[in-house]
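Quick check before the chapter quiz. The format below is the same one you will see on the exam, so make sure you can read both the input and the output lines.
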Amino acid sequence: MHPRNEIAAGLSLRVRLDPLRVELARPMFDVLADERIYEFISERPPKSVEHLEARYEILATRLSPDATCRWLNWCVFSIKDRRYVGYVQATVPVQGDSAEIAYVFSPLFWGQGFAFNAVAVMLSMLARDYGCKHFIAHTEMTNLRSVSLLRRLGFIRESAAGDPYSEQCFSLTILSAEP
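Here is the expected output.
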C-alpha cells in the first residue's frame, strides 16, 4: 500500500509527531543513549541531558542560521507504549519544493512499523504544509533496515557512483493528482 493510502487508512494513529522542543530532551535522552543507533550514522549518543537540551535549543528555532532552510524536527511518540521512540527530521529550503529527510529510532522499537508510520506522516505533512514534492534520503547500503524502509515508502535508489556499498541517495517524487 502506498504511504499516502496508509495515512488515509488511519495507520498514523500509532504515532504522534511532536515538534521538537527543549523540554523533550529529557525523554529523548534515553531513546538516543543506545549505541546501536550509531552504527550507520556519524553522530554519537548525547553526553548528557544538558548537552541534548543545548542542541534542541538550536534546532527548535526551525530555521538555519542563514535563514535559507527550515529545520523541521519531530519527536515520535508511540501512542500505545506512551513513550518517545525516535525522531524524524527534514531540511526544507525556504525557496523550493524539496526536502532532505532523516530518521532515528530506538532499537527497542526497530521492526515494529514505527519508522514507516512516522516517516509516512512526515512526508504527508511536508507535502501538505510546505509544498514539498521531491524528497531525498541518504543511507548506507549495508543498513538493510533503512534501505527496506525507504523502498517500502516508495523511494527509488539513485544511480550508484563508485562503491555499491557506500552511502547511497534515495529519492521520491509525489506526483500531484491535479492535471
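If your answer matched, good. Residues 1 and 152 are 9 Å apart (CA to CA).
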